[in-house]
Specification:
With 413 residues, this protein is α+β, with helices and mostly antiparallel strands. The chain is built from 17 helices and 10 strands. It folds into 2 domains: 3-56 and 260-409, no CATH class; 62-256, no CATH class.
Length: 413
């Protein structure tokens, strides 16, 4: 074993002459471990939050959406056929999109109405797998059935089998003036995707019923597509826009929800830099602890120099000491961070129960649970950054130790 390593490891253990130096080293290890634990947990929660939002959005929205100019698409069957030829397209489904008012007694709620073909909609969205009551296949042409989001149904005070009235925005001209067009629908199902925006504002009906209600004729609003790889949606949208011509507008899910996804990504980056400052503070503690060790060990350094130790060897001793502190702190931080991140869904409900508050309000953050997803690149990045910061923190104290002059250090010994 090189004597630099032997001496460096001995300096990290408790000293009989100066326990304060050992205490500062312990605090440095603890700060690094806590900083890494917090950083890993925060990034894992942000990853889980991003995953949950993406999953729940894509459970209702489409990967790519094709629509015509003016909000209508007459030759939608041709568009769907040509889009299906793309190698990334798995399924297609037409839809009619509109807004309306739903009423039940004195309860009135605005709703985003979507007319669908249930058998094709099931291929591009997962709403059918999130039915609280009823079935999506219960939507049949001419029967004017409707499927409501769980929060929307609760606000209207209706259950499966009850009636609601839809008020269409297109008015009907009569000799007495323009009166609103109304149609009674039967609630045939209630879904809940645990995404407040959709649960509180989305209503589904059969495509033909929507065409009749909103006077679309045989036209639709557009065609929804599901892809093999959702992360290629931007490229696929551009390919289809070029292939189908200027009369077709193609948009993908990242464009439709760009602000939300961008906000989550920016928040994740900012949280990384803010929490990483904890590790920087721990590195400053390493600097202070090593400077105190150098001051305390000047006589030892001088004796080593008189015995022939080179300045580079003196530097190695204190670099090794700081590196050991960094390795121990990083290792403990990795263990603590990964353990907490993997169990955050158990720990957070306990904290919420004890203190009586919710971390994520459902109507604000779209989801009500704290998700977590540990990603290997984040773990590697945090570990490397933490170790590099700890290693850089040893440079100045080690350089200062190498500059100790033996004669001056031993003058009063």
């Amino acid at each position: 074993m090189p004597y630099e390593f032997f001496i460096g490891t001995r300096y990290t253990r408790a000293k009989r002459r100066n326990h304060y130096v050992s205490f500062v080293s312990f605090v440095s290890v603890l700060c690094i471990a806590l900083g890494m634990t917090v950083l890993i947990t925060v990034l894992s929660v942000m990853n889980g939050f991003q995953r949950e939002i993406r999953t729940r959005i894509l459970g209702v929205a489409s990967h790519v959406q094709l629509s015509g100019t003016g909000g209508t698409l007459a030759d939608w069957k041709r568009v769907a056929t040509e889009a299906a030829r793309h190698e990334q397209v798995v399924a297609t489904a037409p839809f009619v999109s509109a807004q309306g008012l739903l009423t039940n007694g004195s309860a009135v709620r605005g709703a985003f109405v979507r007319g669908i073909l249930p058998e094709q909609e099931a291929l591009v969205a997962d709403i059918g797998n999130h039915m609280r009551s009823g079935r999506l296949e219960s939507l049949r042409a001419g029967e004017f059935g409707i499927v409501l989001g769980s929060e929307l149904a609760r606000a209207l005070g209706v259950m499966t089998g009850e009636k609601v009235v839809m008020i269409a925005p297109q008015g009907q001209v009569t000799p007495a003036g323009v009166i609103p067009r109304m149609k009674q629908f039967t609630v045939v199902g209630i879904f809940g995707v645990d995404h407040y925006e959709y649960d509180s504002g989305l209503a589904l009906m059969h495509l033909q019923d929507a065409q009749v209600l909103f006077r679309q004729g045989d036209a639709v609003t557009g065609v929804r597509l599901k892809l093999k790889d959702l992360f290629l949606s931007g490229a696929v949208a551009r390919d289809l826009a070029r292939a189908l011509g200027p009369s077709i507008y193609a948009s993908d899910w990242t464009l439709q929800h760009a602000n939300l996804l961008r906000a989550v990504q920016i928040e994740k980056r900012m949280m990384f830099f803010v929490v990483f400052l904890i590790i920087v503070v721990a590195a400053i503690n390493i600097v202070s602890s090593l400077v105190m060790v150098v001051t305390d060990k000047q006589a030892d350094i001088a004796i080593l120099r008189t015995l022939g130790a080179a300045p580079s060897s003196i530097m190695k001793i204190f670099v090794i000491q700081g590196t050991i502190i960094g390795i121990v702190g990083t290792s403990l931080g990795l263990i603590g961070g990964i353990s907490l991140a993997l169990n955050v869904e158990t720990v957070v409900p306990l904290i919420e129960t004890v203190f009586g508050f919710k971390f994520f309000a459902k109507d604000v953050y779209l989801i009500s649970e704290v998700p977590s997803e540990v990603q290997r690149p984040d773990i590697v990045l945090i570990a490397v950054f933490s170790f590099v910061v700890c290693l850089l923190a040893t440079i100045y104290p080690s350089w200062r130790a190498s500059k100790v002059k033996p004669a001056e250090a031993l003058r009063y010994e």
